[in-house]
Amino acid sequence: MTGDASRSELAPAKINLDLLVTARRLDGYHELDSLVVFAPLGDLVSFAPAEGSGFGLTLEAAGPFAGQVPLDRDNLVLKAADLFAARTGAVVAGRIMLDKRLPVGAGLGGGSADAAATLRLLNRVCGTRLGNARLRELGAELGADVPVCVYGRPVRMRGIGERLDPVRGLPTLGLVLVNPGVHVATPAVFRALGGLGEERHGGIHPQGGPLVLAQYLAESRNDLEPPAIAVAPVIAKVLQSLRTIEDCALARMSGSGSTCFGLFAGPDRAERAAAILRQAVPAWWVQAVTIEPDLVEP
Ligand code: C5P
To answer: CATH assignment of 7-166, given 3.40.50.720, 1.10.10.10, 3.30.230.10, 3.30.1360.180?
Structure first.
């Protein structure tokens, strides 16, 4: 096995700053239009190749949320590894460790982010040099959200998740992520969706500071918020708690929930808000994150 010696890959939390559900396809999937960013916080996927002529692949999980993920062949990490091996011909044998630091069933990418990190990691470690576009194609076979997680940078996501257009010019974002400890299953939220929302008018123009962005986002929405609240009413409480913090410019749910985010004027305000919320409700998972602008050309 040749390639990069670094054998760990972050699976960053995916945050949908908005999420419009605009159509339902005949196969039951929904067409979305979503502004997606990634936090420098996530699960960690590591790979220890088998020594010598060993074969077979095992998965172990550690970390605060390890107990909530299946470790059998249903885990998207192993599915991603199997798919990668089948499509590239690379021998993928050894141990994969998943450090599960993000809540599960949380609207933050979860298994899709882990699968995407696995594809990126194996591509690096095995020296297969697949381009990002090819990795996204493989990701699409694993789940609708995997391609965007393979991409991993600010992006407008459309179709059922396969159509990705980079978004440049976002300001530095100070966010607080709050998860109330309730697992929300994505299919259940889509089933509870009452109807389709209006399409986005006028594209995404992210120029301006965080408060300008908050104004833009306030005109937009997450169409999965009402059905997710119907499935897990505590989400409304999380949103309300964020909104009661004086300088919270926007509070919204990410993905199909149950994690919500608050957008603040800057990282220091977000840190302060996180401290307030942790004290108010110690049982909730609360993280302040800073998302830097995407300056690198693709
Ligand atoms: O493909 P993935 O496993 O991420 O999707 C989980 C479920 O979420 C699907 O079975 C479908 O019910 C719903 N979904 C949808 N439209 C999307 C993405 C997911 O209806 N664009």
So the answer is: 3.30.230.10
